[in-house]
Amino acid sequence: MNIQIFTTGGTFDKVYYDALSDFKIGDPMAPQILQEAGVTFDFQVESLLKKDSLELTDEDRALIREKVAACPAKHILITHGTDTMTNTAEVLKDIPGKVILFTGAMQPARMRLTDAPFNLGVAIGALQCLPDGIYVAMSGRIFEAGKVKKNRAAGRFEASAD
């Protein structure tokens, strides 16, 4: 199994500097998490962007789409900020012949209390089992793109009403 990981920034890779929540997007955390887990599959990581997802533009989403469509790998994982990952998933919805899975974190991977490693693990496991399509792995569940929403008040993702 070979997995291509594209990172776009978001909370997953944030680094906080002070009590006023000043932050920047740091280096991708996915490789470190996977190395610490001792995975035995091949993966490559390419950082496409280092932005909070609320700052992503149509041009940024076009870049993500271009990279995913051109990627020779069938299994693609995208770490993305949780606020707009469903928007970006919609932009990729007609890319055929690939399993594309988005994941993120509600707390940065660098923090002690974070959902990042769990979400990454769920995403990697699902990526190996799912049929072609676009998915979101958050809150311990796998959702089809277009059928999921972020519930800010509850701090989780859940199925959206169709």
UniProtKB/TrEMBL annotation:
Protein name: L-asparaginase
One annotated GO molecular function: asparaginase activity
Domain L-asparaginase N-terminal: 3-154
Active site (catalytic residues): T11
Organism: Pseudomonas indica
Family matches, as InterPro entries: Asp/glu_Ase-like_sf (IPR036152), Asparaginase/glutaminase-like (IPR006034), L-asparaginase_N (IPR027474), L-asparaginase_N_sf (IPR037152)
Binding site for substrate: S53, T82, D83
Domain of life: Bacteria
Gene3D superfamilies given in the database record: L-asparaginase, N-terminal domain
Pfam families: Asparaginase
